[in-house]
Structure formats: C-alpha cells, structure tokens
Design brief:
Layout (H helix, E strand, L loop, with lengths): L14 H7 L9 E8 L5 E3 L7 E4 H13 L4 E6 L17 H12 L4 E6 L13 E2 L2 E2 L1 H18 L3 E4 L6 H11 L6 E8 L6 H7 L19 H13 L3 E5 L5 H10 L4 E5 L1 H12 L5 H15 L3 E4 L2 H11 L1
Parallel strand pairs: 1-3, 1-4, 1-12, 4-5, 5-8, 8-9, 9-10, 10-11, 11-12
Antiparallel strand pairs: 2-3, 6-7
Length: 326
C-alpha cells in the first residue's frame, strides 16, 4: 500500500520550523496584571488562596507597577479594599479611597502605564452585592447612577480604561454619558459584557472581601449554560458605546470567546480568573504539573480562541518566561 505523501510531521521536525508555521503566539503586550490595594503603608500581605498575589498598600503598589512596566507589560487593573463600607458602596467613588489614591500615584510614577479601573460595588457595600438594594434585590436603575460616579472618580484619578464588572443592564450608556459630560471623552470602556455566575471567582472574593452576605449573583450574572445570551449582551454593550468586550471567566468559556471574536471587530479581552490561577498554583506547588508549560499553554489557548487581551495573575511570571525564551 502506498503511503500518503502529505505528511504534516514534516512541519514539526525542528523548533525553527515549528516557530515558522506557528499560527498563534503569546506576547507580553497581550497582558494586563491585576493588583489589590489596601489602606496603610509598607503593606505586602500574601493572599492565602492566591499564591504570589498580595494585598498592597499604595506605596507597594507603585513598586509593583514599576516592575510590571519594566517587564514590558503595558497595563494593570486596580482593585481595592475600602477603608469603610455602607449600603450603597459610597467609598467606591471616594477620591481618597485606596484605589483612587493608587491610580494617582502610579500614573505620576509610571505615566506610560495603562491603568484599568474596575467599576463595581460589591467590595464596597456592607451586603456584598454589586449595587443598591431594594429589599433583597439589586435595583438596576438606581445602581447605574452610582456606577457612573465610580467611573468618573477613577477617570479623575488617572484611569485610562474603565471596566464595569457589575452586569447591570444599561450601564455602558450611562457610564459613557457621565464620562463625556465630565470631560473624559478619551477614556475608554472595557465592558465585562459576558460575565458568568461562576464558581471560579472564589479566591477573588477572599482577596476583595466581596462575597455576598445573602443569596448569590445569579440574578444579574449570566447562566453558565447559555451561549446565545452572550451575543445579546455583547451587541447591547457595543451599541451603548463599549470600546472593548470582555469574557469572564476565560478557560471554561473559550467557545464563547470564539463566537464573540467571529462576530465583532472590537478588541476582545478575557479574564483568567482567580480560581483558574489558584488551581494551577496548587497543582504546581504539589509537583503535579510543570507550571510554566501549563500556564503558557493555557494562555495560548485563549489567544487561539480569539482573545486580544488577557487579564491574568500569571502576567509577571509569563513576562519573565517569555524574556528568557527570547
């Protein structure tokens, strides 16, 4: 029997050939590194469920921002723990809160770095939900006004990109209007358009002290079983003025990433979330996996699915690994 003369293995014979025909590649320029800021000074406290991730005081956050930018990572996303909480999360738009202070100081110290501001209320409210309550339900329209205040306060503090993660209906339009009216027409919006009600957020909720005090967030975050609904959310947010579209979590929703990528011509971001990160770190610490290989493979899969931008706690390690390879 004559063998097939077309042999794909010919294109795998050496590292040089594999590099030549590689369809997707991971770059340090694809990454955004999330940080968690807290009140105080000289604080760098480990977050137990997220190895190598820390609660940082503003001065320490500046040091990390400098390291991140020196490694070639173009952007950070700033999360924070407030000094006080109330029913409506008013500390979220307090210009003296850790997030806003960190943004100002980081932008002064590293003016070229892109600062992404997370806009949500869960870590700022006493009840841990993502908006103003009416009884035990989040009042969508009342919450929009509060989110607009948060967005403007972050823009005033130096944020280049506003990233609403609350999943309230209509928030992009309200935030866009508020930013424009406040003179921030060039501040862009990265919408968490497709944010699923996921079990992968557990470590983040520990880090941000943002677990709901009752119920859950399935009334506003998406059902993991749905995909057509994702495109509806994307279409609405684009129509309202979103500049970037985000899918969160990343790893279990790569099919959604591909659907979104095939349908839109705006930049697509994914969030490689805390649970995905923690699983890899735990397995690596037990010696069960090759951490570097697994992380690079995982993030490359996100690029292959269609992501332009990856928000990941692995960013610093990935930047170092990619530098070593070059």
């Amino acid at each position: 029997m004559k063998l097939n003369t077309l042999r794909p293995r010919r294109l795998r014979q050496s590292a040089a050939i594999r590099d030549m025909v590689r369809e997707n590649s991971l770059s340090v320029k694809d990454l955004i590194y999330p940080i968690f800021v807290v009140a105080g000074e000289n604080i760098k406290e480990p977050i137990p469920s997220m190895p190598d991730v820390y609660h940082l005081s503003v001065d320490k956050a500046v040091e990390v921002a400098k390291e991140v930018y020196a490694l070639g990572i173009p952007a950070i996303e700033v999360f924070g723990l407030p000094e006080y909480k109330d029913e409506i999360g008013s500390s979220a738009w307090d210009l003296n809160s850790p997030v806003q202070r960190a943004m100002r100081v980081i932008k002064e110290a590293v003016p070229q770095i892109v600062i992404v501001g997370d806009v949500c209320l869960c870590q700022y409210t006493t009840h841990g939900h993502c908006g103003q309550l009416c009884g035990h339900e989040v009042d969508n329209d009342a919450t929009l006004k509060l989110l607009a205040k948060v967005a403007v306060s972050q823009a005033q503090s130096g944020a280049d990109i506003i990233a609403p993660s609350d999943m309230m209906d209509g928030r992009i339009a309200v935030i866009r209007e508020a930013l424009d009216e406040a003179g921030f027409k060039n501040v862009s919006i990265m919408s968490y358009a497709v944010k699923y009600a996921s079990g992968y957020y557990g470590p983040f909720r520990d880090a941000a002290d943002s677990a709901p005090q009752f119920g859950d967030r399935r009334g506003y975050q998406m059902d993991p079983a749905n995909s057509r609904e994702a495109m509806k959310e994307v279409e609405l947010d684009l129509a309202e003025g979103a500049d970037f579209i985000m899918i969160k979590p990343a790893l279990c929703y790569l099919d959604i990433v591909r659907q979104v990528r095939d349908k839109i011509n705006r930049p697509v971001a994914v969030y490689n979330v805390s649970g995905e990160y923690a699983m890899v770190k735990a397995a690596a610490q037990n010696g069960w996996i090759d951490e570097k290989r697994i992380v690079l493979e995982t993030l490359t899969s996100m690029k292959r699915a269609g992501a332009d931008i990856i928000i990941t706690y692995h960013a610093i390690d990935v930047a170092k690994w990619l530098k070593e390879e070059n």
